[in-house]
Amino acid sequence: EPGPPGDGRDVLRACAAVTAPLLIVHGVRDEVVPVAQSRALRARLLELGRTEGVDFDYLEADDDHNGVVQAWSPVLREAVVRFCLAAGRTSLPDQERR
Fold first, then answer.
1. What's the rounded Cα separation, in Å, for the pair 17 and 68?
2. SS3 label, residue 95
3. What is the top-level taxon of the source organism (predicted)?
4. 8-state DSSP, 52
């Protein structure tokens, strides 16, 4: 649940001020934080005129709350690498370029 308005936890309001690229990854079987919250964030970013694949990347993984990161699937790994490269944060080591 988002916090009360104005307490800094309402991401749907706060995201309008975010200018940094975002990578949103959520497990569809997450019982701690419902995937609907990330879906609402994605929808809000689109409403604000942000472009998916440019201003933010969104990925739903077939996993639960912790499993998304613990499994470190090839799909997640590729999404993280692509996001970092697009943000100019890193370059691929030689063995990863193949």
1. 27
2. helix
3. Bacteria
4. B
**Domain segments of the chain: what residues?**
20-96
* Token pair for 50: 């942000």
Q: Which two tokens stand for residue 88?
A: 């100019």
The pTM for the full model equals 0.76
Q: What is the DSSP code (8-state) at residue 91?
A: -
pLDDT in tens, the chain (98 residues): 555 555 556 899 999 999 999 999 999 999 999 999 999 999 999 999 999 998 999 999 888 888 888 878 888 899 999 998 887 755 555 545 44
Helices and strands (H and E) in the chain: how many: 4, 2
The alpha-helical segments, DSSP class H, found in the chain are 11-14, 35-47, 67-71, 74-86
Centre a 10 Å sphere on the Cβ of residue 39 and count the other Cβ atoms it contains. 15
